[in-house]
Amino acid sequence: MKILAFAGSNSSKSINRKLVIHTLSYFEEETVTLLDLNDFEMPLFSVDRESKDGHPRQAHQLLEHIEACDLIIVSMAEHNNSYTTAFKNVMDWCSRVNGKFFQNKPMFLLSTSPGGFGGGNVMNSAKAYFPKCSANILSTFSLPSFYQNFEENEGITNPQIRADFIAKIQELREGLKK
Fold this sequence. Notes:
Helices cover 42% and strands 20% of the residues. By secondary structure, the protein is of the alpha/beta class. It has a single domain, classed as Rossmann fold, CATH 3.40.50. Strands 2-1-3-4-5 form a five-stranded parallel beta sheet, with helices on both faces. A two-stranded antiparallel sheet has the order 6-7. Helix 3 packs across helix 4. The longest helix is centred in the last third of the chain and has 19 residues, at 159-177. It starts with a strand and ends with a helix. The relative contact order is 0.16.
């Protein structure tokens, strides 16, 4: 199985990237492509720019990565109760090339934040919107209070939250079998 993984953040200190990397440790037998959103930086989307210059090559490159994978693992960062500007811009460009840009690929949708809601607002937005872009969300997990519940060398430290996370991975694996 080929896994495409990334965080919906362009921060060099992204806690969502740390969550993605931890999640990938449960898929060590798989072929993994871990992307950095910074490698897909594009001009701010506008219809005028699209009309004048067309679609950036980075949008096509990301769509090629999606096409080549069997599973997408993405952890959404939350800025002001929504997607980060960097992720929204990438999504806007990709959707102009292919409105169904998630290409019906199975997805494990994650989020985390320093607060107790764990990026719940962006998670709810993504769960509502991503299927309209042809995401096949098989499982979701939100990690609350990242700095209290996660250690870089250990992963999720809270036993109950870790058990919930492992159950979500099992749910994902079962969904992939169908």
